Amino acid sequence: MEIVAHGIDLVDCPRIEEMIEQHGKRFIKRVFTTAEQAYAEANKNRIEKLAGRFAAKEAVLKLMGTGWRGKIAWTDIEIINNSAGQPEVTLDGEVKKIADKLGIKHISVSITHTANFAIASAVALTKKG
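Now predict its structure.
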């Protein structure tokens, strides 16, 4: 496997909290999958967890060079922790089609956050040759 692209994003946690206060469940359902919502709800620092997932989704879109446009849906990208606690990326819909066109076989993501900021870095991997 070789690295073919990288994306990074920084999110202001209070801004995510404002969006939730303004738009409520509409924002949450538009941006986060059911599993991502459940993960955040199960944690005491819910806003930080949601902000981290938001940053990870943005980082994935940046590495694909698309940004959020066209037929892309926020929920086409799901970030769920594996049993060891490491976040893993699952793609669906339009984002999966774009990744397949680019030859992306795996996306590795890292997320960190504080009460004020969440940052995520995503790296796209593909097979050589």
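The domain at 2-126 is CATH 3.90.470.20 (Ribosomal Protein L22; Chain A).
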